[in-house]
Here is the input.
Amino acid sequence: MFEHLKIWMNGKIVPWNNAAVHIMSHGFSRASAMFDVFGIHPGPKGPVAFRMDKHLDRLFRSAELLGMEMAYTKEEIVDAVREIVRLNNINRGLIKILAYYGEEAVISLVLDSKLDLAVCGIPEMDDLGLDQTKPIDICFAKWRKIHPATVPVEAKACSNYLNGMLVRKDAMSKGYDVGISLTTDGYVAEGSIESVFMVKDGILKTPPRGNILQSVTRMSILEAAPAIGIETLEKQIMPQELMAADEIFVCHTGIKVLPVKRIEDRILDQVPGPVSSRISALMDNICNSRDDRFKDWLQTVG
Ligand SMILES: Cc1ncc(COP(=O)(O)O)c(C=O)c1O
Here is the structure.
């Protein structure tokens, strides 16, 4: 399905099937890898990336939080993104950037090398489920969110996704689409790859920073919602508060706003609700270059 695609690896363009690292690489065998993902949308003068600067900031921040050093500058990475968008003919899709220790490490745990880098670009296809809007069922997962005192949860470290995978598996085994993990203190954290929002009495609420990934979509919704008169609040949310929400949605780069129709055994009344619908339309307009107030959020990459 992906064989025809090219990947940028440490400055070289390689075919999809040859984009490999050694089984004993530190990145694979010690999980010293991190990544970031952002969306490409059709723009008036060619494909545009949604808030690429913020995603690259987060990638560099992930490396910093993990005490690792990037080998390429942001400008070099932007050039690599442009090359991959062109080579893979992406008008709409996703860019995934991986930074990892590619060198073999049989015994060594701590390396002082710089991180290898791969830039992958995937054009829109059914499997990506981009901008999926079919409402979903969510539940609270039996697995808690990793405590930030154990590993930095604000780093988009590949190893953190073992926790995310368990959360999703647990939800799916109980017949739900997405699991929401709680912090070890019992507050609502996030989904496996999704941030969570709730609406109560017209106010849009989401858990604060500290225990969750710094989602660029979450940040963008919080920044943009006031422009359409929606009040926002970052606050600790108890599970019972989420259960009693008027509206709930989850979001991430690929889907932007995905309404929830059922939480545990409660079916929500109106799905999508009025606030979720307005946020969804706002984000859709922004990503598709129809809202000039946020045009700086899109960078031409084609
Ligand atoms: C744990 C987690 N939370 C939230 C998000 C949403 O982040 P973003 O909006 O940057 O895609 C992601 C995205 O992959 C994630 O993995």
About this structure: The chain has a mean pLDDT of 96. The chain is about 25% helix and 30% strand. Residues 136-287 form a domain with the D-amino Acid Aminotransferase; Chain A, domain 2 fold (CATH 3.20.10.10). The pocket of pyridoxal-5'-phosphate is lined by residues 37, 164, 190, 193-195, 213, 215-218, 252-253 (CB under 6 Å).
